Amino acid sequence: MDLSGRVVLITGSRRIGAAVASALASRGADVALSYNRSRSAAEQAAAAVETKGQRSVVSRADLSKPEECERLVNVSAEALGRLDILVNMASVYARTPLDDLTATDWDRGLAVDLKGAFLCALAAVPHMRACGGGRIVNFGDWIAASGRPRYPGFLPYYVAKRGVIALTEALALELAADQILVNAVAPGPIRPPDGLDEATVAEVRRATPLGRWGGDGEIVKAVLALIETDFMTGETIRIDGGRHVR
Question: Is residue 157 flagged as an active site residue?
Fold first, then answer.
């Protein structure tokens, strides 16, 4: 798929999401962005899109709520005239010991990471069909893609991201006849989380066979590849510097 003249919706516009938005705009796409609490980050990402000469729209949405998923997709498509590509990046990532985990924590994690991705895709499909096809890029996690939890305290997150892989495969089958290709990115050590201490940053570096953190650009490359492909669907690609082979 050529990105020129296309419209992309990215859920989650902080950090790596902003880098993806800027890269897609550089290739001729207009970009809709969503946020829940980080309005300033979303507006900065939108401004970067506009410096590339492309249109952008920013919308607030709580993706744990079905009606807001549908509204986000429809408002974005209406504002920019169409919708060709959905990038499901929004995620809840919080460490909670099992003994402290509540049903609310569980519901929140799965509602955003898994159910929200499904509902945004469901709302996007009619718009993509109207364009003759489309692309959906989901975001999993390298640990979930490897099929074994490694860090305690992330139970809802791990389960949700395993579900994202299954969602990607099932949607790929359901939507193949519509020429809507569905794939997923499973990031590994790309960028240290805010506030991570230097000792842990160095420990992750040592545990990664390639010996470094990947950087935002590696995710940008993966997203571009999954948008540009015309014959790959139902795949989850790990971008983890070889972590899964160690």
Answer: yes
